[in-house]
Amino acid sequence: MRGGTVAVVGGSIAGCAFASAAARGGADEVVVLERTPGGLEDRGVGLCIQNDRYAELEAAGHLDGGIAWHRLTRRRWLVKDGSDLGRLMWDQPFPFRSYHWGLLWSALRERTPDTVAYRLGATVAGVTAEPGRARVRLESGAGEEYDLVVGADGYRSVVRDAVCPGVRPHYAGYVCWRGSFPAERLEALGRPAAAWSGTDAVTVGFPGGHCVLYRIPGPGSDGPVVNWVLFAAPPDTALELDDPTSVPPGAVTDELTQHLGLLAEQHLPPYWAGVIALTPAERTFVQPIYDLETPRRATGRLLLAGDAATVVRPHATSGAAKALQDAHSFESAWQQSDSWQDLLAGYESARGDVGRALVSLGRRLGRAQVERTPDWTSMDTRLMTPWWEQQLDGTGGFGGHPL
């Protein structure tokens, strides 16, 4: 199939990937409608892509080795035991590449074909599916028509409201605190570099949560960056979550800041509590954890992509891979279709069940690692291996399912 006009609502990772896929597919016009007036906000957070998923996406043309990345090989599970670093519960293979969100997005944005019109400050207020077309209503009041509208506008998607009315992300009952800072600051902790190998991801378990720490590439020539994520329930009075939201850097309340410090002091070995304490306030934010599965990804001439279609808890380590795999399936369906109806049906068939399976996996991992944590002090390799396999339940979906 060739020709037609496509609007992509949202210009983040999924948006750039879908715009590129539509352009390569031969669309006459591809427009990205991004609500932010300037560059997308970069909070310096990290993400990981499993090595096999990266190889598939590289072969499909969605990633390449020129995008800055950091090599991870092992995941060391620790628990507080009175020592500085904690007791090793399990040394798990962890064949992943870590990325800096901002650097990955910038690379995908730069690789978007010049034929794509990337419009900043274009806030979409609503979309409707009409016979043989889709209509976009901008906040400015203007209306535009396209052959296809792709909702790549994240977990608060406007397009999803039209595809699946009333379907909204579900709050899991806990949050994560996130932070990052240049790895050179670790010298202030007074331990040799060997205390934490650069290729190790570290997970510290504690009652009601855990903390994950790993390195990601730094911008420019600044060297690697420490990236950490701590999952736990917030104080009862700390958040009002009427709508899906996050608490950006600079807006984290004293109550949330103090609770993070209390969690680190009580539950993390001294070295890892020190890592958290090195993080400046302007590099710390809070993200409530949600998940979402939709009954469908398409209706009429509307299609959902990335987190607009499925929100998976971060424990599955699949977010970026999921968005890029969605784009790959979209492009494959485009190449194999003779009509828009065939395109949307092929995409739904390829990604619907996979997305719902990832949501289910994220929930199981969240229950096991936050909501119903084991007695970490009793865990060792003999117990950790079957515990982990029980969460995966034979899905093989940790890091994303194979294409």
Number of strands: 18
Amount of beta strand: 25-35%
Q: What's the number of domains?
A: 2
- Which CATH class of the largest domain is shown? Alpha Beta
Q: Supply the CATH architecture of the largest domain.
A: 3-Layer(bba) Sandwich
CATH-defined fold name of the largest domain: FAD/NAD(P)-binding domain
Distance between the termini: 22 Å
The spatial strand order of the largest sheet comes to 3-5-4-12-13-14-11-15-18
Q: How would the global form be characterised?
A: globular
Report the CATH superfamily of the largest domain. Answer: FAD/NAD(P)-binding domain
Please give the count of helices: 9
* Rg over alpha carbons: 21 Å
Order of helices and strands: EHEEHEEHEEEEEHEEEEHHEEEEHHH
What is the subunit organization of this protein? single chain
Unreliable spans: none
The residue fraction in helices comes out at: 25-40%
Mean pLDDT over the full residue set: 94
Q: Main beta sheet, described? A: 9 strands, mixed
Given helix and strand content, the structural type is alpha/beta
InterPro entries: DHP_3-monooxygenase (IPR053212), FAD-bd (IPR002938), FAD/NAD-bd_sf (IPR036188)
GO molecular function: FAD binding
Organism: Kitasatospora atroaurantiaca
Protein name: 2-polyprenyl-6-methoxyphenol hydroxylase-like FAD-dependent oxidoreductase
